[in-house]
Amino acid sequence: MAQKPAESGAKQRKPRSPSPPKPAYFIVQVLDESGQPMLFDKARVKIIGVENNADRVLEIVEGNAFPHAFYLRGYVGSKRPAPQEVPQAA
Description:
Blueprint: H1 54-62
């Protein structure tokens, strides 16, 4: 069965392409036993990797390859403005 062509006045929607990856910045403090921030040598902090698979993260953290490793979880949401926030052309 043939589909009707779009009406002449209506715009056809283009499929949305995926958003490019956005950087995430994790701001970290090391706390002592009383919950107060403590000094540490920032030059000795090593990023082991970036993963989005929770099972893989657990393998790395619980494995023997990287002792004392831990993870920080973050989410980078969409920054698309809501329709009412779009500036109007004068």
